[in-house]
Fold:
Amino acid sequence: MLVLDDQKSMRISLKLIGRCMISCIFVFLTQFALSIVPRFFAASSLLIQLPLSALLLLVLLGTGRCCRRFLGVYASAPAFVFFNLLFIWGVYIVILRKVISPLMGIVLNGEVVMLIIGLYSILSSDPGFVTSRSSCSDNHAEDSFSEDEAHFEGSFSSRRVRYCKSCKAYVKGFDHHCPAFGNCIGQKNHVLFMVLLIGFVITEASYIMDSFKFATKFQKMDETGQETSLSENLVISTMLFCLLQVLWQGVFLTWHIYCVCVNIRTDEWINWKKYPEFQIIIPTQPGLSSEGRRFRNPYNKGVFCNMKDFLASEE
Structure:
């Protein structure tokens, strides 16, 4: 039995290492492919290069999905985030560090180190798994309001225990499963998730400011007819990559701040029709065959109290 367990652990470890290697390769392919944009569109403004970079990223994403579907090649999303962070940090150390102030360098280095610590922390964190319910079978768990679920509906807090299909477990305060961080976001790590998301936005914004100064300098040189080098193209392409990240992460962060202010989870907002406490039954009207349902949020106690509950949620 011990030998079988060791073999199983070895297979899992090798599978994880393989996915991390694929993620690393895909990061290098993605970043060097993005450097094509400033290489061949150096005379174009950043407003033109930005949508071109977004289009190229979509093509690369589609290619990755095709590889996964037809070739069975799987990557690791957390490893992809980690190696992208390392790649951008490497571009800073090798190229950007020489042209920015020491103070900005200290700030950027500190931000990246904190992000790496935060990634490890959220990847290994307990989002609030409810072990007494995680042993239910998958078929049993597909029904959100099975008999097991109904057993816990009497308590205010336990009503917010939801099932995650990715982790195949129940999570207290379940918001969503985050592939990028490789974990569920629940009551125990929701604050960490928000802090990490804000950290990514701030770090990427810092990198954008530093690389924009570099790009402006060499864009003027390009107007004189000098050909841009690979290092210059990498700085501009990583800046465009970070700018795209900030754009969608800013929207994502705004949404989560709104959810915190009104005390609702993403899963509850999307699937409110599955949860009775979010429904107001409208009596059947003449001419209608069935009664209607209207959304209500029973957990909204005002912005101040909602923020206080959120900050104390890990206790």
In short: The first strand starts at residue 161 and ends at 164. The radius of gyration is 24 Å. DSSP finds twelve helices and six strands in the chain.
